[in-house]
Structures are given as C-alpha cells and as structure tokens.
C-alpha cells in the first residue's frame, strides 16, 4: 500500500469510525479476504471512490465537513451535500448486494484473472444467460 492509500485509509478510520481494513472491506461491500490484496497492491480507483463516497455519506449523516481529496482516479469531494466529480467510470452501487462468494470471486478475478480467462468466463456466462432467455 502506497503513502496516498495509507493516508486515505487513516482518514477513513477517523471519518467512518472503524479500526481495521476488515471493517472497511465489509463496510464497502467486499469480502474480508480482499484486505490481503489491499495490503499488497493498495486501493484501485473503484475502491478509492467507494471509500470517498462512504466518507461523504457518513459526513452528511453526521453534519461534518469533508475537505477535497484527490487520488489517481481524479475523484474529488468538496464537503457536505456536494456532488462527486471525476473519473468514476465502472463504479457500480450494486456490489454491496452480492454474496461474499461473488465478491470474493470478483476480487480474485480482478487480482489474478488474465484477460483471456475473464473473456472466456464472460462468454460462458453470456451463453448461459442466452439459454435462459
């Protein structure tokens, strides 16, 4: 985890009132095992967005102000009731509704899946979807 990710994590601990990465993973809708990837590789842009979004929502609920934070994904929050700006392509709010198994599979594919493996899996799932109409 690089210094920027460590700073974001420390901010999240304070603002979200958590004490460890496992709590952060669960709060963001990820499997607890995801933290191993975060220790090694840091937060990807989607995770950074989710952390900042959670901080912003928590700040709105507690009427606390949030300063501007910028990361590699050009994401910026400016305070209470302000909009999110920046590159948030590919971010889905549905991830929090998935089972732990699906979240773990997603995390593993993101970390270890080759483009070929991901394409083959996607093609297979699309074939199954087509069969079910």
Mean pLDDT: 74
Q: Helical proportion?
A: 55-70%
**Low-confidence blocks of residues:** 63-73, 82-95
How many helices in DSSP terms?
6
- Cα Rg: 16 Å
Task: Give me the secondary-structure category.
Answer: mainly alpha
| Largest sheet descriptor | none
Molecular shape? elongated
Give helix and strand order, one letter per element, not per position. HHHHHH
Description:
The protein has 133 residues and is an all-alpha fold. It is built from 6 helices and no strands. The protein has helices at residues 3-16, 21-28, 34-41, 45-62, 100-112, 115-131. Helix 1 (3-16) runs parallel beside helix 4. The termini are far apart.
Write the layout of secondary structure elements.
Blueprint: H1 3-16, H2 21-28, H3 34-41, H4 45-62, H5 100-112, H6 115-131
Helix pairs in contact: 1-4
What attributes does this structure have?
single chain, 6 helices, 59% helix, 133 residues, mainly alpha
Concise structural overview:
The chain is built from 6 helices and no strands. With 133 residues, the chain is an all-alpha fold.
